[in-house]
């Protein structure tokens, strides 16, 4: 496995790789969620490139950029074991040199949910992802359903800006008790870790009510809200029952593919989770 830092080194290394080329963008501190995407990329591509970059422009001023967990030696060992061909680990100065002033801004789909709570977050995401796509020029790029809005935003960007690649989405990987894997789970103490299952419990309660015939968006949102409010260590930021592509809130469930999602604080840790309702999910 080769590791590179600069863009000229990256381009040189990529020339040697067989196509189709799969890219798995990450912020490091890898867990089974990331590795499941690497395996998907391995299955669907002749060569796999993984990027590790904690992108400062997608963090707000009061967010956890400085505290964001990092463990590069462990990440490299995990990626090597998965048969990754090339790891790209640029420094912030390489991605955002002095004088940097070009941004990618996706409009409507970034205004709601995560975008409403984290102003500027998706501008940072789309800008860095566009830069990764331009530098690596992959045939396929792999993203996790864990960040459902991120997927919707990147798919919109790829359509709008004619990026010549395919976006592949991998399913959410969870702990045995339902907590979605996240690099941020290390912030939770033992009590908070138990309370953090409330996100998945709320999604399951909503799904059960859908399966029992409920079709009202308001009732589904209420069901999730009540479950979260019953957990003393959790503080709900939002719950949503929305169209999977436009992300607009729904009055009535759409038959295939309604996206249930939420952001909940457990202590100071902000957790997100989601689930897609419908016969094909
Ligand atoms: P991050 O390092 O948090 O930026 O995540 C890198 C990629 O891994 C993104 O496409 C995430 O959606 C994906 N990912 C993170 N957690 C999970 C998970 N629990 N299951 C599946 N994919 C995930």
Write up this protein.
- The protein has 281 residues and is of the alpha/beta class.
- It folds into 2 domains: 2-170, HUPs (Rossmann fold), CATH 3.40.50.620; 183-275, Pantoate-beta-alanine ligase, C-terminal domain (Pantoate--beta-alanine Ligase, Chain: A,domain 2, 2-Layer Sandwich).
- 37% of the residues lie in helices and 20% in strands.
- It has helices at 7-15, 32-44, 72-81, 92-95, 113-117, 121-136, 148-161, 190-195, 198-211, 217-229, and strands spanning 2-4, 21-26, 47-52, 86-88, 140-144, 166-170, 234-242, 258-266, 269-277.
- The chain has a 6-stranded parallel β-sheet, with helices on both faces. The protein has a 3-stranded antiparallel β-sheet with strand order 7-8-9.
- Helix 6 (121-136) crosses helix 7 (148-161) and helix 9 packs antiparallel against helix 10 (217-229).
- Bound molecules: adenosine monophosphate (AMP).
Weakly predicted, low-confidence segments: none
The first-level CATH class name of the largest domain: Alpha Beta
* Proper CATH architecture of the largest domain: 3-Layer(aba) Sandwich
Alpha-carbon distance between the two ends: 36 Å
Profile the largest sheet.
6 strands, parallel
Mean pLDDT: 97
Helix content: 25-40%
Ligand set: adenosine monophosphate
- SS content category: alpha/beta
Q: So, the CATH homologous superfamily of the largest domain? A: HUPs
Total DSSP helices: 10
With strands numbered from the N-terminus, the spatial order across the biggest sheet is 1-4-3-2-5-6
The Rg value, from CA coordinates, equals 19 Å
CATH topology name of the largest domain, in short, is: Rossmann fold
Strand content: 15-25%
- Basic shape: globular
Total strand segments: 9
């Amino acid at each position: 496995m080769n590791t590179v830092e600069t863009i000229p080194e990256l381009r040189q290394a990529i020339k040697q790789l067989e196509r189709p080329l799969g890219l798995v963008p990450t912020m490091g501190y890898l867990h089974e969620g990331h590795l499941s995407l690497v395996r998907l990329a391995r299955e669907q591509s002749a060569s796999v490139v993984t990027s590790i970059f904690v992108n400062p422009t997608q963090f707000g001023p009061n967010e956890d950029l400085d505290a964001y967990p990092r463990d590069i030696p462990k990440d490299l060992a995990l990626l090597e074991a998965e048969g990754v061909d090339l790891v790209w680990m640029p420094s912030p100065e390489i991605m955002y040199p002095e004088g940097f002033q070009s941004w990618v801004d996706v409009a409507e789909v970034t205004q709601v949910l995560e975008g409403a709570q984290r102003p500027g977050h998706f501008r940072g995401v789309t800008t860095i992802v566009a830069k990764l796509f331009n530098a690596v020029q992959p045939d396929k790029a792999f993203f996790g359903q864990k960040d459902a809005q991120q997927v919707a935003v990147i798919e919109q960007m790829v359509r709008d800006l004619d990026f010549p690649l395919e976006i592949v989405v991998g399913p959410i990987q969870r702990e045995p008790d339902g907590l979605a894997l996240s690099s941020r789970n290390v912030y939770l103490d033992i009590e908070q870790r138990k309370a953090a299952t409330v996100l998945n419990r709320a999604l399951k309660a909503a799904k059960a009510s859908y399966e029992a015939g409920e079709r009202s968006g308001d009732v589904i949102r209420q069901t999730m809200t009540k479950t979260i409010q019953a957990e003393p260590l959790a503080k709900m930021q939002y719950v949503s029952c929305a169209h999977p592509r436009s992300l607009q809130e729904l009055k009535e469930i759409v038959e295939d593919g309604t996206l249930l999602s939420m952001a909940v604080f457990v202590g100071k840790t902000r957790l997100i989770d989601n689930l897609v309702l419908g016969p094909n999910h």
